Amino acid sequence: MAFDLVLSPAAMGDLDEIIGFYSLLNPTTALRYLDSILASLRRLPDLPESGRVVPEFQAQGEKRYRELIVEQFRAIYRLQDERILIVRIVDGRRLISTSIV
User: Domain containing 56 — which CATH number?
Assistant: First the structure.
């Protein structure tokens, strides 16, 4: 069964910030990141458990959230009913806590 893919308002804001920042540095890189992130997210409905459980969350006992690594970014998501909710898209070099979701 394929799931619906939904980006939360926070994830949409994250994506806007990422693309806005990299557009100032190098528009070609910004477009590459955008294309790469969106292409990876589009594959999730067919393989919803392909992402790993977020290590920082798992250490806190939280196993509902998974992440997909795309370029240098982490797309944090969870399965919710018949949809995949992308909750955040963050820089992969950043340690995160459950407070961001």
Answer: 3.30.2310.20
pLDDT at residue 94 greater than cutoff 80 = no
pLDDT at 63 over 90: no
pLDDT band at 97 (very low <50, low <70, confident <90, very high): low
Range of the domain at 82: 4-100
pTM score, whole prediction: 0.88
- Whether residue 44 is predicted with pLDDT greater than 90 in this model: the reply is yes
Q: Helix/strand/coil (H, E, C) string of the chain?
A: CCCEEEECHHHHHHHHHHHHHHHHHCHHHHHHHHHHHHHHHHHHHHCCCCCEECHHHHHCCCCCEEEEEECCEEEEEEEECCEEEEEEEEECCCCCCHHHC
End-to-end CA distance of the chain: 26
